[in-house]
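> forwarded from #structure-qc
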C-alpha cells in the first residue's frame, strides 16, 4: 500500500498519475468524497462522488479503510476494492492526506509505505494552485491555510521528497516502490526458493 500525501498543489496527483501510467503492477485506490466534482474530473475515475448521507452510511457500516474531513468535505477509502486487489498480489497507490495515513498505520502498518511530497517553497505552492485554475480565490486561500497543518505532519512519513523537479520527484517515488518490493518481509515465497537453491548444491 503506497501512500502519497502532500498539501494541495505540491504535485502528488501528477506523480500518482505518472506512476500508474508506467507501472502495471500497481492500481489506484479511488477515494469516495462528498466534495463537488471539478470540470476535469470523472466519477469513478478520479473519485467516487457521493452524498454526505451515503458517506455516513459507508462509515457506519465499516466500509471505509480510512476517512477524514478535509477543506470542509469528507474523503474516505472504500475497503472492498483494496482487499480484492491486495489478495491478488497487486500493489495499491493511495492519494490521501495525513489523517487517512495515520488511520492506515493503525490497521495495517506493515503493509503501508508512506511518502510525503513537499513543494519547493510556499510561493511556488500558491502559484501552482493559481495556475491550476480549478478553484476560486476563497478556496485557494483555505487550501493555503490548511497546508500549514498538513506540512507539520511530514515527519510521520517513511520517505520525504521535495518536488522542485517533477522528473526527479517521480524517479524518487519509483525508486522507493522498487526497493520496498524487494524487502525480504514482502517475499515470503523466497524461503522455499532459497531452500531449493541449497538443495541443488
Amino acid at each position: 500500500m503506497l501512500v502519497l500525501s502532500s498539501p494541495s498543489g505540491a504535485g502528488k496527483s501528477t506523480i500518482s498519475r505518472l506512476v500508474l501510467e508506467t507501472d502495471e503492477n500497481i492500481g489506484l485506490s479511488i477515494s469516495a468524497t462528498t466534495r463537488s466534482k471539478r470540470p476535469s474530473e470523472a466519477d469513478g475515475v478520479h473519485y467516487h462522488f457521493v452524498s454526505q448521507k451515503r458517506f455516513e452510511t459507508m462509515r457506519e457500516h465499516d466500509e471505509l479503510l480510512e476517512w477524514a474531513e478535509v477543506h470542509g468535505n469528507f474523503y474516505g477509502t472504500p475497503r472492498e476494492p483494496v482487499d480484492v486487489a491486495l489478495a491478488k498480489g497487486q500493489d495499491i497507490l493511495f492519494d490521501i492526506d495525513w489523517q487517512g495515513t495515520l488511520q492506515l498505520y493503525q490497521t495495517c502498518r506493515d503493509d503501508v509505505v508512506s511518502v510525503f511530497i513537499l513543494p519547493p517553497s510556499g510561493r511556488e505552492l500558491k502559484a501552482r494552485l493559481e495556475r491550476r485554475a480549478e478553484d476560486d480565490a476563497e478556496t485557494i486561500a483555505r487550501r493555503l491555510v490548511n497546508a500549514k497543518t498538513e506540512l507539520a505532519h511530514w515527519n510521520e512519513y517513511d520517505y520525504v521528497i521535495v518536488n522542485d523537479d517533477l522528473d526527479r520527484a517521480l524517479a524518487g517515488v519509483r525508486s522507493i516502490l522498487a526497493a520496498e518490493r524487494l524487502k525480504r518481509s514482502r517475499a515470503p515465497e523466497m524461503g522455499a526458493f532459497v531452500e531449493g537453491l541449497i538443495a541443488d548444491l
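QC bot note: Residues 166-181 form the longest helix (16 residues). The mean pLDDT is 91.
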